[in-house]
Design goal:
heterodimer; A: 111 residues; mainly beta; 6-stranded mixed beta sheet; 60% strand; B: 112 residues; 7-stranded mixed beta sheet; 4-stranded antiparallel beta sheet; 11 strands
């Protein structure tokens, strides 16, 4: 069964801290790995997309890496801010319109 | 105006009611999706339409009935739902099934 696991389920950090969110997946034959952000009561916003041939992607203070051989991806957030507080989800696409999501990591950044 | 618009934002319905959720995308995409998000569980893919044809039906009970009249609109018709169907229903679109997915803000459904 294809699964995506995110650890930790919740994380609370002080403002300014650098942090890493972890994602593991069971299928090494993925097409791509996406990281999304979800604010309470809202939909998902795509943050970073890593194609299977890539190792990492960067956008501003965010950096996502992909290691297919170990089935892992990490999302690195530098100099965290209260506005970063949200739930972060990773998702793997395995082809055929199937994108499998993790349950997310709920992040709270304290001012 | 957001790329993917869902209405209504909130819906409360009894178990014997019939209602419909609506999704409209303004991105020129040709694939649309319905996802269900329950508390503390991963998003579950329900249905996928590509070029207005259903290409995925993920073992969803028949009390959920999708409709895709054109590439910009997607509906989810609901009837005789159960309390466990209460969840956030998210619509998404993409270009020919490729990433990234663009999501609407969802409809929060409560079945009483």
């Amino acid at each position: 069964k294809q699964e995506v696991t995110q650890i930790p389920a919740a994380l609370s950090v002080p403002e300014g801290e650098n942090l890493v969110l972890n994602c593991s997946f069971t299928d090494s034959a993925i097409y791509n790995l996406q990281w999304f952000r979800q604010d309470p009561g809202k939909g998902l916003t795509s943050l970073l997309l890593i194609q299977s041939s890539q190792r990492e992607q960067t956008s501003g203070r965010l950096n996502a890496s992909l290691d297919k051989s170990s089935g892992r991806s990490t999302l690195y957030i530098a100099a965290s801010q209260p506005g970063d507080s949200a739930t972060y989800l990773c998702a793997m696409e395995t082809g055929g319109f199937k994108t499998i999501f993790g349950a997310g990591t709920r992040l709270f950044v304290k001012a | 105006e957001t790329g993917v618009t869902q209405t209504p934002r909130h819906l409360v319905m009894g178990m014997t009611n019939k209602k419909s959720l609506k999704c409209e995308q303004h991105l020129g995409h040709n694939a649309m999706y319905w996802y269900k998000q329950s508390a503390k569980k991963p998003l579950e893919l329900m249905f996928v339409y590509s070029l207005e044809e259903r290409v995925e039906n993920n073992s969803v009970p028949s009390r959920f009935s999708p409709e895709c009249p054109n590439s910009s609109h997607l509906f989810l018709h609901l009837h005789t739902l159960q309390p466990e169907d209460s969840a956030l229903y998210l619509c998404a679109s993409s270009q020919l099934g490729g990433p990234p997915l663009h999501f609407g803000n969802g409809t929060r459904l409560t079945v009483t």
